[in-house]
Structures are given as structure tokens and as C-alpha cells.
Amino acid sequence: MFTQLDPCLPVTVEGKGKGYAFAVIDYGQEHHLIWVVALDDSGEIWSAPNTRVRMAPNWTMGRKGAPAPPVANLRTAAVAG
């Protein structure tokens, strides 16, 4: 089933960047949802599996952004290198 979203949803696709999801494809109970996303920076349109798509932060709704990568690991790598 193909469902057009109205309104579009601001999302981040892991490994691709920020954009707007404008449709969802549902192949059934044995599959992840597929989000159809137009990326902000490149204008590319990607179909991303549910596991790679994250909603944009929304302070009013209490939704925080994805956690930042651990800083300790970056410092350790810089000192070791």
C-alpha cells in the first residue's frame, strides 16, 4: 500500500541527511515500512527503511533529537593517533 502523507513530516535519514517524508510504502506485516523522503541538501528522493528514519526533534512534543556520538571516544582516538 502506498500512502501519501499530508502534511509531509520532517525527518532525518541515517547516512543521508535531513529531509521531508512525503509518502510511506507498506508491503505488509513481514516487512519494514518504507519512507519516501526528499532530502534537503541534495534534492534527492530516497526510499528508506523504517529502521533508518528518525523524526525531527520537537521541543513542544517532548521529542528530543538523536543522541550525539560519545565525545570520550573522539578524544581517545585523537590522543591515541
The gross shape turns out to be globular
Helix tally? 1
How is the main sheet built?
5 strands, antiparallel
Question: What is the number of strand segments?
Answer: 5
Classified by CATH, the class is: Mainly Beta
**Average pLDDT number:** 84
CATH topology: SH3 type barrels
| Quaternary state of the chains | single chain
Output the helix-strand order.
Answer: EEEEEH
Which band does the percent of strand residues land in? 35-45%
Low-confidence stretches: none
Characterise the protein shown here.
The chain is 12% helix and 43% strand. It has 81 residues and is mainly β. It has a five-stranded antiparallel sheet, with no helix packed on it. The chain contains one helix and five strands, in the order βββββα. The radius of gyration is 16 Å and the shape is globular. The chain has one domain (2-58, 65-80): SH3 type barrels (Roll).
Write the SSE topology.
Layout: E1 2-13, E2 17-25, E3 34-39, E4 45-49, E5 53-55, H1 71-80
Antiparallel strand pairs: 1-2, 1-5, 2-3, 3-4
Task: Summarize, please.
It is built from one helix and five strands. The protein has 81 residues and is mainly beta.
Jot down its keywords:
single chain, SH3 type barrels, mainly beta, 5-stranded antiparallel β-sheet, globular, 81 residues
